[in-house]
Structure to design on (179 residues):
């Protein structure tokens, strides 16, 4: 049973690493996928977030969407608060990608403060990744579309965290994308 904050965090890192173990990012170097959830949680640390549930949710945020993990499994292992935040940032993969992206824009303003923090850090991480290098098979147009869509999601999170929003704003400004 993990009852210290440190133990709770290490438990999440280990759970997420195990679940994502065979996955890679879309960058040409095919970085191990786990770098992403760890990096998203670390952006929250840099942003001054100290709430353990939020940091745990960040570490787990893609496990239900992208691995065999169920909501019930997260609820049993990490409790309803953490599982609930992950659920709020999980897309329904049975829907067409256009519909998923449309629903993210519509639903984001109504999610919890904790879920908005994870969404801001997730978008910042992915946009910095795209800025660093283009995924294999992506055109410049597709990258530009991803920036435009992200700005619409981020617009629904404004007023949540100054640091994350400021860093995102810098990236959007460089690309002439309106927030
Ligand atoms: P996208 O295909 O739009 O890819 C972006 C997502 O990939 C990010 O949100 C991120 O999600 C993840 N990712 C992994 N590696 C990187 C990286 N190096 N840089 C940035 N992001 C990375 O996401 P979907 O999975 O929502 O879309 C799936 C399908 O939709 C695709 O198979 C594609 O065919 C189709 N599609 C086509 C488009 C087009 O042709 N214009 C546009 C969008 C989708 P996470 O945080 O979850 O890791
Ligand atoms: Zn993510």
């Amino acid at each position: 049973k993990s009852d210290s904050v440190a133990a709770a965090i290490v438990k999440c890192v280990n759970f997420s690493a195990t679940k994502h173990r065979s996955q890679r990012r879309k960058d040409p170097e095919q970085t191990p996928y786990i770098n992403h959830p760890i990096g998203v949680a670390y952006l929250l640390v840099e942003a001054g977030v100290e709430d353990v549930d939020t940091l745990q949710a960040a570490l787990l945020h893609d496990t239900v969407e992208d691995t065999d993990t169920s909501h019930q499994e997260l609820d049993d292992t990490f409790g309803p608060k953490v599982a609930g935040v992950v659920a709020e940032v999980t897309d329904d993969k049975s829907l067409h990608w256009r519909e998923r992206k449309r629903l993210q824009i519509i639903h984001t303003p109504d999610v919890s403060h904790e879920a908005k923090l994870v969404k801001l850090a997730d978008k910042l991480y992915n946009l910095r990744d795209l800025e660093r290098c283009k995924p294999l098979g992506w055109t410049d147009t597709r990258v530009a579309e991803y920036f435009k869509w992200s700005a619409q999601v981020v617009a629904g999170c404004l007023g949540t965290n100054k640091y994350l929003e400021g860093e995102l704003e810098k990236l959007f400004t460089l690309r002439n994308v309106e927030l």
Notes: Residues 82 and 118 are 12 Å apart (CA to CA).
